[in-house]
From TrEMBL:
SMART domains: HTH_LACI. SUPFAM superfamilies: lambda repressor-like DNA-binding domains, Periplasmic binding protein-like I. InterPro entries: HTH_LacI (IPR000843), Lambda_DNA-bd_dom_sf (IPR010982), Peripla_BP_I (IPR028082), SBP_2_dom (IPR025997). Residues 5-59 form the HTH lacI-type domain. It comes from Planococcus citreus. Keywords: DNA-binding, Repressor, Transcription, Transcription regulation. This is DNA-binding LacI/PurR family transcriptional regulator. One of its GO terms (molecular function) is DNA-binding transcription factor activity.
Length: 328
């Protein structure tokens, strides 16, 4: 088995002390240019890479961003993870992925982040108690809620403008002469699900169009089972707006299994514009979340706060766009 190259090996080859090697790889440490070049040449020859975790223990800071995610089964979030990893890498940061099995982040998840001395934290589809969020503030660790909003104005958030999006979806369906509709929500305690219903309901109320709400969980199985429930309740609605794409795809498959034609008998609209939505088997009409812009907003905020912590926060909303395909 090939042994791991360490700082001692580099020091021996470069003819310098081990502490000199450490200083070369720690930002801001004083070292002569001659020593720096000798160490870098030896490191390249040996294939040495400094241990980021060990560095963080010594400096009490790191080039690590913690990203907490629950819904890995939702294709939207692996897409988000990829974007964050790519973006932070350009700035010299690594992403520490923390998967939580619970709706609310647990103490062991927090301990993992703090043990790695993360420079910043991103929370995606998991919730966090105020006490926990405040613990990050006390330690001057910038925190961003991504694709989520909190009722408190003390924490920074970046998300799509869900209200405007769902209003436009409702207007689109109303203009097409659609009758009674169905809205399928995700987890009830999320701002995304609440706002998407709110904007949708506002427009339908103004238009005098009825709708029925079904609660689900942002998953494919949740959408499929909800569609079965809709059918067992009686008449097929004229349109279904699902709070995310993966539920909408489950709805489509359940309807099709029963011989229901889309969009001739029922129109279906999702939200996110995941890659699967454009597949020929689905060609789902949906609302595209501007992931790249949302990620850029998050990265820029975190890098600014890491450079000079202010604790200032705001709810940033980014406009998305309607994507019309063959399910409407």
């Amino acid at each position: 088995m090939k042994s791991t190259v360490n700082a001692k090996d580099v020091a021996k080859l470069a003819g310098v002390s081990q502490s000199s090697v450490s200083r070369v790889f720690f930002d801001g440490a004083k070292v002569t240019e001659k020593t720096r070049q000798k160490v870098l040449a030896a490191a390249e020859e040996l294939g040495y890479r400094p241990n980021e975790y060990a560095r963080s223990l010594i400096t009490n800071s790191s080039k690590i961003i913690g990203l907490v995610m629950k819904g890995v089964q939702n294709p939207f979030y692996p897409q988000v993870l990829k974007q964050f990893t790519t973006s932070f890498k350009k700035h010299g940061y690594s992403v520490l992925f923390v998967h939580t099995n619970n709706d609310e982040i647990q103490s062991e998840d927090i301990e993992t982040l703090l043990n790695y001395n993360v420079a910043g934290v991103i929370i995606t589809d998991a919730s966090m108690s105020m006490n926990v969020a405040e613990a990050f503030q006390v330690n001057h660790i910038p925190l961003v809620f991504f694709n989520r909003k909190l009722t408190s104005s003390h924490f920074h958030s970046v998300c799509c403008n869900n209200l405007n999006a769902s209003r436009e979806i409702a207007e689109y369906l109303a203009e097409s002469g659609t009758g009674p509709m169905v809205y399928i929500s995700g987890n009830e305690d999320t701002s995304t699900s609440r706002e998407r219903e709110q904007g949708f309901a506002e427009v339908l109320a103004q238009r005098g169009i009825a709708y029925k709400k079904y609660s689900s969980d942002f998953s494919y199985n949740g959408g499929y089972e909800t569609a079965q429930k809709i059918l067992s309740d009686g008449a097929v609605p004229s349109a279904v707006f699902a709070a995310n794409d993966i539920m909408a795809l489950g709805v489509m498959d359940a309807f099709r299994k029963q011989g229901i034609k889309i969009p001739e008998q029922v129109k279906v609209i999702g939200f996110d514009n995941i890659e699967m939505a454009s597949w020929p088997a689905y060609e789902l009409t949906t609302w595209e979340q501007p992931i790249e812009k949302m990620v850029d907003e998050t990265v820029n905020y975190l890098l600014g706060e890491i450079s000079e912590y202010t604790g200032q926060a705001q709810a940033v909303e980014v406009e998305g766009s309607f994507v019309e395909r063959k399910t409407t």
